[in-house]
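Two folds, back to back.
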Amino acid sequence: MTYHIISLFPQSFDSYLSESILKRAQEDKKIKVKFYNPRDFTVSSKKGGEQSYADRRVDDKPYGGGPGMVIEALPVIKAIAKAVGLSSKKLGKKTPQKKVKVIWFTPSGKQFDTTYAKDVAIKYTDIVFICGRYEGIDARVKSAFKMDEISVGPFVLTGGELPAMILIDSISRQIEGVLGDHCSLEESRIASPDVYTRPEVLEYKGKKYRVPKVLLSGNHKLIDEWRKNKK
């Protein structure tokens, strides 16, 4: 699985992708993460292609008025085209060797869940995440490419970077070998929200906290029933 992230702030992903399971998944070549900054797809007004920060601006005032700034469509469209390996002449058509899903993060989108994560992990080789900022991205981007509009919850965030990390984590867990033991998928086995480990009796401020007796019984039928009832 290759994740293509379109973001004005690619460095915001560094810490999360450089730790634990996702770091190991990249090292084991189970997943790959690529970044595309819309600022890199602006047209230079200077000879030799040198650009100042002003030249690389990708936001402008919204039509119709209102607060904030809107990210321009064309730099984002070019970034998507680069991510899926398309030239401007082939815009909107997938390359044969890839099965590409483009995802646009929006509070009004379809609610993301594990079923969606499993479906995407099975059907696609490449996923493009479009991470908005400020007042959002010019909606004409959605006319240039077929895409899913996805929300990670009933709330509004300052950008699409956190949702992208959530989807990378959730989808990657569905890829065989990422978790090491595929039985670690809680959603595919009987699991409880409450788990315990040693010691059997924990003492804190004079009070003792014990592991539920059923978990010490060795009776897996009873343990499974206990776990079901705890959901």
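---
second:
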Amino acid sequence: MKTIGIIGLGLIGGSIAKTFRRVHPEFDIYAYNRSSEALANAHAEGVIDVACEENDPRFSECDVIFLCAPVEYNLAHLETLGKLLKPGAIITDVGSVKGVIHQKVNELGLEDRFIGGHPMAGSEHSGYEYATDRLLENAYYILTPGGEVSLDVLSAFNDLIASIGAIPMVLTCEEHDFAVAGISHLPHLIASSLVNLVKELDNDSQIMKMIAAGGFRDITRIASSSPEMWQQICEENQKNISAVLDAYIRMLVQIRCQVDEKNGGFIYQMFESSRNYRDSIDVDHQGMIGKAHVVFVDIADEAGGIAAIATILAMDGISIKNIGIIHNREFEQGVLKIEFYEKDSMERGLALLQKRNYITYVR
């Protein structure tokens, strides 16, 4: 598997290309993207070796083809590229819903050539400009093989995914779609609806928006994700999303009743149970939107305070993703919030600031 094809150079497709280029520089990478600008940039940067046209016959040279476009395009490419596959080649995708594409795979008779894929990593941003060669590192990568894929082929593909730093996990497409409906699709619906609710409840002075605390920002961050993508996901995984929504609505009705009755025991148990389960989750592995690498710093409110910290970090070659004063720190310590691009930069920055006697906190 040394010739890789990629259809779609957005956040995920671009990150897969950049990761293969870093980890396997000897690989040949062929790619096609609807945006000629992103395709040209990837070629100019040396991320891909061959810039292809749509349904390019040169994809027949690939050992693996990654479908990284929106689902309706992936389905169309599956039909055309499936006919180009050379013996032993595999076609895969990165979609967050697997049932639809597996159905198409069965219709096309590609059950022995297709391994569904879903890297559990991402960002609220989209596009090649946000792609990185570390996005998939230590992220779960779900594999949903077609019913006739041999164990040898699945094992080889599993090893390929592991070689780029991801953590492969094999599930059926049914298991995958129900799981992500609960841990990914429902949270996005909740985040979006919560933001819209606050927007409707806020007054003309936008007091709620002004004093929104870290807790609100954290649980609604994913509401900034692509509307087009999430519309498609809701349509494609409707049955599972509807089932988990029913369960969630029943739980909300129960909570409302217990709050109305001032049932302190129930309310306490609810918060204790959720805290214990949440604390048991391994936060070192990236979820759908990745783990934020954030340091909070106590600084005096004086001219040059932020500039001094930025200079300290810049002199050591550490890039800052975002920096700003926290006006409402109800659930956050430290007046200054610094977000880094990766864990290593955060740890280096933290050590530098502590060495200079800054009081720091890591969430």
